[in-house]
Structures are given as structure tokens and as C-alpha cells.
Design goal:
Radius of gyration of chain A: 32 Å
Order of helices and strands of chain A: HHHHH
Structural class of chain A: mainly alpha
Oligomer: heterodimer
Helix content of chain A: over 70%
Number of strands of chain B: 0
Shape of chain A: elongated
CATH superfamily of the largest domain in chain B: RNA polymerase sigma factor, region 2, helix turn helix motif
Shape of chain B: globular
Order of helices and strands of chain B: HHHHHHHHH
Largest sheet of chain B: none
CATH topology of the largest domain in chain B: Rna Polymerase Sigma Factor, Chain: A
Distance between the termini of chain A: 49 Å
Strand content of chain B: under 5%
Distance between the termini of chain B: 47 Å
Largest sheet of chain A: none
Number of domains of chain B: 2
CATH class of the largest domain in chain B: Mainly Alpha
């Protein structure tokens, strides 16, 4: 019992003897010595734009100057009006669902 | 809302965010500097230099922090390694220099007025016992966490804590509850 009491006293004293050390510019000195941050963002943007441009050029050349797009647009335009309306409604619903789920996820993250 | 250590580490990893790292330094500077002050026997300038070195190493090696242990435990380990390297350089590792240690523990060579000072009593302990006591009793680490920091077996940590405590109790007997 006495021994336990003494150990508790010792542990308490040890914790009390650890004062909070004021920062006093320590953090600023450490941050000043950190190596400059590597700007990965700019590299990311360059890579993304380059890949997109390259893919566009390859697609343009491989599709005979994008003729398939014009053909597809003509085909779509010659379809019945009801079918075109249905496609438009479905596309709107899908876009709304995607936007709503993204908004909910964002709200959860910031909560 | 203040971010926890894991969030701050993630920001440093993903965006190389200096502000997030500064927040980590701010959160842990007192504990790390306090530990190093005790280990260096209150050499404040040396302790702060070592603490700075420890935080810079932590930044450079933050990718090796896998989140298996607490960030503070990982940080203490880096700080302790910095201290050990410095001590090796200065050949001041207590425990290696046994004659010096014995001289320090001889009651006749110790100022009696300081004998009642807990911090002074701590500084009389050999490094292995002092480190174990500081980590477990003062900084609140578990024996297992202290074993990771000190890179020694769990049993050795328990023994060192026990021996250190016994020596402290003897030194401070006059102060303790009777």
C-alpha cells in the first residue's frame, strides 16, 4: 500500500515537473529551415493538358478528321423527336444525380 | 476545427504543406524539447538544436511514417536517435562512462541541497533508466511505446523503469509521503 502510494506520488511529481515550454519562435525557426516545397500541382497540370492534347490529336487523325462525329450528328438528328427528348431527359437526370451525390459527399467532409 | 496529427501528416504528404507541418511542430515542440532537455541534462541550447534537427528529419522522412504508432512516438524516436548520435560524438553517453556515473552518484559529491530536487535526482540516473522513466512516467508512453522509441526489448524497458523508480524513491525519500 505504502509502496503504491509512493509510486503514485513519484509519477504525479514527474508529470508536474514537466512544464510547458513556450514556443518562442522555435516553430518559425524550424519552418524556415524546411526545404522549399516541390510544386507538384504545376507538373500535374502540364501532364494532364499534354495527355489530353495528344489524345485529341490521335483521335482526330484516326477518325479521318472527325468525320464520324458529323455522321453521328446527322443520324441523331434524323431520329424521332420522342427518342431525342427521352435521351435529353435521361442525360439531365444522370447529371443531376451525380451533382447531388458530389454535394452530399462534400457536405459530409466539411462537417 | 483543429486537425489531428493524422490529417496534418496527410496534408504534408500530399501537398508538401508547410503550414500543416508547422502545426505539427507547434503541437509537439514542448514535449520533444522537454524530453531532450532532460536527456542533455538541461543543456537548453543543445536540446533545442537537437529538437530542431529532429523535426527537420521528421519532415524529410515523413513518408516512412506509416501510422502504425502514434505520431508523437515516432517523433520521440527520431529525437532520441538525434540525441544518441550527438552523445556518441561527444562521448558523453552515460552508462559507457561508468566512473563518471559512479562519481555523480556518490552522495558526497552531490550538493545535498540539490538532492531534494526531483529533476536533479533524475539527472543522476544512468541514461537507460532516465530515458525509460522520462518516456513512461513523465511523457505517459506505454512500456511498449517506450521500447519502440528506445529500440530495446520490452522487458528491458520494464526493468529500467523499475530500477529508475527505486533509485528516485531512495534519493527523494525525505520528500515522499511517509
Amino acid at each position: 500500500m505504502d509502496q503504491q502510494l509512493q509510486e503514485d506520488w513519484l509519477d504525479r511529481r514527474l508529470r508536474e515537473e514537466m512544464p510547458y515550454i513556450d514556443d518562442a519562435g522555435f516553430t518559425a525557426r524550424v519552418v524556415q529551415k524546411l526545404p522549399a516545397p516541390v510544386s507538384r500541382q504545376s507538373w500535374r497540370a502540364v501532364i494532364l493538358i499534354s495527355v489530353t492534347l495528344l489524345a485529341s490529336v490521335v483521335t482526330y487523325l484516326a477518325s479521318d478528321g472527325g468525320r464520324f462525329l458529323i455522321v453521328a450528328a446527322y443520324r441523331f438528328a434524323s431520329m424521332p423527336l420522342v427518342f431525342i427528348s427521352l435521351v435529353a431527359i435521361c442525360a439531365t437526370l444522370i447529371a443531376t444525380a451525380v451533382a447531388a451525390s458530389a454535394a452530399v459527399a462534400q457536405a459530409r467532409e466539411t462537417r | 476545427m483543429p486537425l489531428n496529427d493524422a490529417d496534418l501528416v496527410a496534408r504534408v504528404l500530399v501537398d508538401d504543406d508547410h503550414h500543416a507541418f508547422a502545426e505539427l511542430v507547434r503541437n509537439h515542440q514542448s514535449a520533444v524539447r522537454g524530453l531532450l532537455r532532460q536527456l542533455t541534462r538541461s543543456d537548453i541550447a543543445l536540446a533545442d538544436d537537437l529538437a530542431q534537427e529532429a523535426f527537420l528529419r521528421a519532415y524529410k522522412n515523413i513518408r516512412s511514417f506509416r501510422g502504425e504508432a502514434k505520431f508523437s512516438t515516432w517523433l520521440y524516436r527520431i529525437a532520441y536517435n538525434c540525441f544518441r548520435e550527438e552523445a556518441r560524438k561527444r562521448k558523453e553517453l552515460v552508462g559507457i562512462d561508468e566512473t563518471k556515473l559512479e562519481a555523480e552518484q556518490d552522495p558526497q559529491t552531490v550538493d545535498l541541497a540539490l538532492k531534494h530536487d526531483l529533476m536533479h535526482a533524475l539527472q543522476l540516473l544512468p541514461l537507460n533508466e532516465r530515458s525509460a522513466i522520462l518516456l513512461c512516467c513523465q511523457n505517459g508512453l506505454s512500456h511498449d511505446e517506450a521500447a519502440r522509441v528506445l529500440d530495446i526489448p520490452l522487458g528491458t524497458v520494464k526493468t529500467n523503469v523499475l530500477r529508475g523508480r527505486e533509485k528516485l524513491k531512495k534519493t527523494l525519500a525525505a520528500w515522499g509521503p511517509n
